[in-house]
Amino acid sequence: MNWETVIGLEIHTQLATQSKIFSGERTRYGAEPNTQACLVDLGYPGVLPVLNGKAVAMAVKFGLAIGATIERRSVFARKNYFYPDLPKGYQISQYELPIVSRGSVVIRLDDGSQKRVGITRAHLEEDAGKSLHETLKDRTGIDLNRAGTPLLEIVSEPELGSAAEAAAYMRKIHQLVRYLGICDGNMQEGSFRCDANISVRPSGDTELGTRTELKNLNSFRYVEKAIEFEIERQIDVLEDGGKVVLETRLYDSDKDETRPMRAKEEANDYRYFPDPDLLPLELDQALLDSIKESMPELPWEKEERFATDYGLNPVDIQILTASSEGAAFFEASAAGLAGNFELAANWNKGELRAALNRDGLTITDSPVGGADLNSLLRRISDGTISGKTAKEVFEAMWAGEGDADEIIEARSLQQITDVAALEKVVRQVVADNPEQAEQYRGGKQKLLGFFVGQVMQATGSKANPAEVNKLLRAKLDADEN
Ligand code: ADP
Ligand code: MG
C-alpha cells in the first residue's frame, strides 16, 4: 500500500516587543527567575490587562506580508486549564475571531520546485511561565518571567506533504518574521518553536487520517527528523492492522523517537469564552495604512530584485537574501561594481562566510563591514591587486590592520601593471627555462601555466595575471620565429 503524508504546523513566534502583551513588565530573556513578572502576569485579583499596541502592529505586519485578511475586529478569549506555570488558571488567546486569517506563503524545495502553502490563521496570545525541573533538587521550580510574553501563533493548513516540506515551510516563516523584525528568531531561547500535526492516509484518499501532535520542536533539523520518525511509526501501526491514536507526543532527540505525552484535546474542554476584561480589538483604517507604509521589502520581493539588479543565479540569490542583514551586506559590498557583481557574490558566499563561521560571528558583528569589503573588491576590479592578494588583504582587514587601501599601501601589494617591468621578468623567465619553452612551442600549450607560475613567483604574486598571460604568449610565440 502507498501512503500519503499530511502535515500541518502551528508555529509560535515570540514577538519582539519590549514589554509584555497585557502589562508593562519587561520581556528580556535570561533574567533571574521571577524578576520580570508583575501582578498582571501573576493574575492577581482586581488587576486589568492592557493590550500592547506594538504586538498588534506586529501581527498586522505579518498578516499583510502573507496576503491574509486582516480582521478589523478580533476578540480575546480565555482558554481555561490548570497548570502550575499558569497562575491565572487561564491563558488569554484568540479563538473564534483571530486578528489574521487566510493567507499563504510559497516555499521552495530542494529540487527547485515551488509550492504555495495556506495559512489558516495567525492569532495573538500570551505565553505561560516555565516549570524548571532541573535547577532544583527533587523539586520543581516555577519561573514566571515568560508569563504574558506576546506570541503570534501561526497555523498552517494541513497541506505539507513531507518532513522536508514542513522544514522548508518553517524556514520560510522564520525568514519572514526576521525580515519583518517582529521576532528575533532565536530558537535556542524558544523565541521560535512549533508543534507538528501529522497523519497518513492511503494515497488517493480524500479524508484525513487520525493525527498526532508533536510538541515544541525548536530546531529545523528536529522538525524534519521527528516528523520522519512519526510518519514511519504511523505507517507501521496501520500496516500491522492497528489504529493511530489521537494524542500529543514528544520528540526525544537523543533516541531519535517520539513518545506519547498525553491523550489529545477532544477529552479536554478549555471552556473558551470572550475575556470580559478586554474589549474586542478594533483596527481603524489609519492604523492599517500606517502599518502598510512601514512594511519592509519582503524576502520574495528582494529575491526578484536581486535577479534583475544583479543578474545573479537563483542559488546565489537564496543564499544572499536568506536574511535581510546578509542581503544589505551584499548590496553594500557590491555598490558600483556593475559588470562584476558575481565577484561580490562570491566573496560574500566564500571568504566572508568562512571567516564568520571560523570566528563564530554573525554578519552583524562582522569586523569587516559591507562598505569595507566594497573598497577591497574595487581594488580587484580595477586591477590594483589580484584576487589572491585580496585574500591576504581581507585577513589583515579582519584583524583590524586598517582599510583595504591602507593595507595594500603598507604592504606594497599593488600589482605590477607596468608593462616594461613585466616584460623584463617574462624575458628572464623564458631565458631561464629553455627546455620548457621548447616543449611549449612543440605544442605543449599547458606549459603556459608553468611560466605564469614562474613569473608570479619572481614578482611575489604581484604581477597582473592577465597581463602576464598576454606577454608570455607574445614572447614564446615571437621566439619561435
Ligand atoms: P488544535 O487546535 O486542536 O491543535 P487545529 O484544528 O487548530 O487543532 O489544527 C491544528 C493544526 O493541525 C493545523 O495546522 C492543521 O492544519 C493541522 N491538522 C488538523 N488535522 C490534521 C490531520 N488530520 N493531519 C495533519 N494535520 C492536521
Ligand atoms: Mg494544537
Description:
By secondary structure, the chain is α+β, with helices and mostly antiparallel strands. It folds into three domains: 3-288, no CATH class; 299-410, no CATH class; 419-480, Arc Repressor Mutant, subunit A (Orthogonal Bundle). It has 16 helices and 16 strands. The protein has helices at 39-42, 53-65, 163-180, 220-239, 285-293, 299-310, 314-320, 324-334, 341-359, 370-381, 387-398, 404-410, 419-432, 434-441, 447-458, 465-480, and strands at 3-14, 69-70, 73-74, 76-80, 90-94, 100-108, 114-126, 130-132, 141-143, 150-156, 192-202, 212-217, 247-252, 257-263, 273-274, 281-282. The strands form four sheets. Strands 2-6-7-10-1-11-12-13-14 form a nine-stranded mixed β-sheet. A three-stranded antiparallel β-sheet has the order 5-4-15, with no helix packed on it. α2 packs across α5 (285-293) and α8 (324-334) crosses α9. The longest helix is centred in the middle third of the chain and has 20 residues, at 220-239. The protein is elongated, with a radius of gyration of 30 Å. The termini are far apart. The mean pLDDT is 94. Residues 6-10, 155-158, 197-199, 208-209, 211, 265 line the site of adenosine-5'-diphosphate (ADP).
